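ARCHIVE CARD
Drawer: 12
Card no.: 0347
Subject: one protein chain, sequence and derived structure
Cross-reference: see card 0346
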Amino acid sequence: MALTALVAMVRKDLQIFFGDRRALIMSFAAPIAIASFFGAIFPGGGGSGEPARIPLRVVDGDGSAIARAIVAGVQADGNLKATVSVETDARDAVRRGNATVAVIIPKGFGDAAGAAFFGGRDKPRLELLYDPSHGAELAMVRGILTEHVMRALAPPGFSLPYRVREEAVVARANAKYNGYAHSFAGMGVQFLLFAAVDLGIGILLERQRGLWKRLRSAPVSRHTLLAGKATSGTVIALLTLLVSFAFAMLVFGVRIEGSVLGFLAVAIACSLMAATFGLFLAALGNTPGATRGVAILATLLMVMLGGAWVPTFVFPAWLQQLTVVVPTRWAVDGFDGMTWRGLGLSAAVAPTLVLLGFAALFGALAVVRFRWEER
């Protein structure tokens, strides 16, 4: 009896979901569109291998052979988009955001730098003008500039006493980083939680109309009623997640480089966590309007801290440690491990268990705190 009622409730929720064409299209289109945008701006997402070039202005106030060699070096560097200009134009370009850094080579720099390089005399000064919103790029330009200055000052025939071989290290051979894999994981998790908010608000609206009070009069336990909502929410969440990743695979070349079973385990656990989170919101909420604002704020915080928008490695060290208490962090890391990192099934165990633990916590709190009638 309980199983029949459970199946009937799940079927009813799925029919409602697929019956609303506008909501159905948005459920699939929104995460795909936003994930595509974020994937395009992450390194490695375009597939062309071309690095992002930093806009740079170079002011040669010296005109010496050394200064000309420095200018030629930065202009030829593939990491920079260098343009020679006068100082006033360079300052204006940085001020307006048209250039990230401007390098000013003062008069006499070549002679003074050469004397300092070989004779230990006073060192001349290069002036760097930079956009304060691009501190990371300033450090990169400083390092690149040092290389080209050293090359310009070195005697003929001099070369760096080493070569560099770069290797991208992932778990599986021939696996490549694809920025779309991370963006679709992050946006997929985000929209699962947004769907959970809608699930919770929908339950509150049904309670306002007295539906849940009438359902209690049916020969079905309250645990079965809540389990029905959780099951249908999990199925819908899993479906939207899989459709999003299928789009990423077909259009952007995302691949499950690791364990397919591990990927499915993380996806199912994440979908269940999202569905029970919706029940948890319904259990704690009073009115739909008041609950929606708090729920969206909580969702955005979890998504932001979980690395769904930007990878967590850009966070301060203390914040990286703190985010392990957020379920979205485990979901995103789990999907990253199973896709571009190419990790095996064992790497999916911890994220799956943690997500299931959060699902059990949210579900238990929902059962204990859920009110069947409007106060």
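Annotation on reverse: The mean pLDDT is 86. The first helix runs from residue 2 to 19.
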